[in-house]
């Protein structure tokens, strides 16, 4: 089974990427499962068409002894299995522990064994904020990690910070950085910035997603692009990214950048931003 | 063995003998503090638990706390509910105060945060007493009365010790106003009526608070082990209350004379001592009155990590400590005298066999001689205790 997880700054497009990649991979008769690790529980909404009951909802209502796999794993478009960890209400409890509990419940109920999966994808919220959200990085739960980022400085900063978390487990041989997925949905859309960032990390860019209005339009209908516009170029791009990840052999222990190195990238972004503004004004 | 801040808070709060303690913790923590408390006080079931489980860790323990508060309010006939919030609720940030505020309970509720990782058992005890101190009220001063501060209901021999200490004090014409932490809520609230606070090893923060708030002066004394220790204790009380000192009249050397030969044989025995604030006064008794050699001494407040290793590397022939030292004593094949919390493998049924005070000196010495005489086999140095005593 190919197992990987996707991290990235909040709102950067992780769930969009994961749901489209999952559906794309499932087109080739692969048995794919997506586990959303975010208390908002909206990672799989575009695969199913609506939000699904979460693992922790069932855990709370029934307790660990009476939960059933079919109550927490749902089948979406192209037969993709979907589960959402869920979590507590904002401001109480411990969402990080919730992610760990949800993963334990899935394993206990045989989700990873009984479903005979080919591909397992974890979609993890914004940042490695605590041990709970680092759970997929530990104990061999996944082979490698992919980080979604735009050219925005805060997005790159978050990606770099996630690499610090990955490195902690990578040096112990538990997980590796598979690469960066570039999302062009930003004021400055310059893939070379992220090429440089990935290079400095000792990694690579495994895919580039240009800005395209088909993505928000499909999401308005709670669908993946693969389902909403299957013949579009953007659907093809998602398929290529999915294939690149599954076949990826180039994995690395990331070398997170220093603050000064991040500032250098920020200055490059600022220069590009200035050029773009000037060009717009002269036009 | 330091159980951390939670254990200290529990010991302070369960010392209000008619209050109910509601532990907002996982069941294991509740069992731990309860077990040490209930070994020799089995009918004492005045503590409840929210039983924090994984569900509460993920979703917060506030609902569980609400349920437990309602149930405790309904179940127990008690004037006060004390909620102690332990490690897990502190980590996940349960808003205990808002839960209490949201309920209309018949009983008064006081809560305190006591995550075990936030400090030592001693600190937990001190801070919990301070929090309970807010319940105290201004009272008319009772002349020649004292509060005894620092005794806990789960201390080994505490009932017998307290009885003996009270006997000594009352014979001097001094009354015991409140014994903290072994008194009812009413007695606790009326503690400011005492003329003097006597801090016996712990509880100094409360004593300072009472001095500032109610003008009750305080003294800090050692736990009264041995004849000398008991005389020093008596002297300190008399000196501070202007009572004529008459400690010598309690001295009864006859029991010691009856076992003179055994005491002579045991003179110079190498021993090691570990414990809470009782450690130093016990070591003083053993060294100065029985003539033992102290090999290793370790108080809970100090670094205990090397205690076991130091004992192994010493000539220790007898160990003084808690039930936690049982393993070490077995390993070294030496007798263990339990005298300090926690003791969970022996019971104290009789309140006329103290270790503290003048009478306690004789009982303590008797127990030491008996544990040596009754110790079968030979130690790691091929030393026979029975041969020693039969010479």
Automatic annotation (TrEMBL), chain A:
This is nitrogenase. GO terms for molecular function: 4 iron, 4 sulfur cluster binding; ATP binding; metal ion binding; nitrogenase activity. Keywords: 4Fe-4S, ADP-ribosylation, ATP-binding, Iron, Iron-sulfur, Metal-binding, Nitrogen fixation, Nucleotide-binding, Oxidoreductase. The keyword Iron applies. Signal peptide: none annotated. It comes from hydrocarbon metagenome. Its cofactor is [4Fe-4S] cluster. InterPro entries: NifH/chlL_CS, NifH/frxC, Nitrogenase_Fe_NifH, P-loop_NTPase. It catalyses: N2 + 8 reduced [2Fe-2S]-[ferredoxin] + 16 ATP + 16 H2O = H2 + 8 oxidized [2Fe-2S]-[ferredoxin] + 2 NH4(+) + 16 ADP + 16 phosphate + 6 H(+). It is an enzyme of class 1 (oxidoreductase). Belongs to the NifH/BchL/ChlL family. PANTHER family: LIGHT-INDEPENDENT PROTOCHLOROPHYLLIDE REDUCTASE IRON-SULFUR ATP-BINDING PROTEIN (PTHR42864:SF2). The keyword S-adenosyl-L-methionine does not apply. Its EC number is 1.18.6.1. Homodimer.
TrEMBL record, chain B:
Signal peptide: none annotated. GO terms for molecular function: oxidoreductase activity. SUPFAM superfamilies: Helical backbone' metal receptor. Pfam families: Oxidored_nitro. Residues 6-372 form the Nitrogenase/oxidoreductase component domain. PANTHER family: NITROGENASE IRON-MOLYBDENUM COFACTOR BIOSYNTHESIS PROTEIN NIFE. This is Nitrogenase femo-cofactor scaffold and assembly protein nife. The lineage of its organism: unclassified sequences, metagenomes, ecological metagenomes.
